[in-house]
Amino acid sequence: MRMLRGLAIAGLLVLGLPLVASARPAPAPAAPEYVIGPGDMLHVFVWKNPDLSMDVPVRPDGRITVPLVQDMQAEGRTPTELAASIREALAAYVTNPVVTVVVKAFAANDNSAAIRVIGTGVPPKSVPYRAGITALDVIIAVGGLDAFANGDRATLVRREGGMYHSYPLHLSRLLNSGDLSDNVRMQPGDIIRIPERLF
Fold it and tell me: What is the pTM for the complete model shown?
């Protein structure tokens, strides 16, 4: 069991990105904006310019092409950030363009966006990401915690700024007492690691 747990952490390090421990839990109340990824289908709307408005997929290289704007980076940006970049690019052709970007469909086959639950206390499972999904939603989706899972020593592993950061989660407290302070909003690619309870 402990060997499997070590292999899971080793897998993160193989990616070439260090795992950074943090004593501060992930912020619970704030819902992070969705970050665009390859395979997402976007609707770019330019007000009063129907010829510039269109649905466009995010290519595997993370870029999109819309009228008058070619090869703009979309991956890793929020819809609001992408809309601002398109607006800036269109300003050379359109007077005061008003641009909105809406994610119409999420990449169904993008495994990098899935939320994974691993550890010695639970069978490894993967949960598809959707906007607004929380830690409680994920734990319910995987069937809850069994008697061998040490939910209050769980950790959330999240990639931020090119590094993996680890935050404590108290999942047993969340499930049993209704304390929602650990019901964090999940992000694409998050990992929840649940250790085994020591009897």
Answer: 0.49
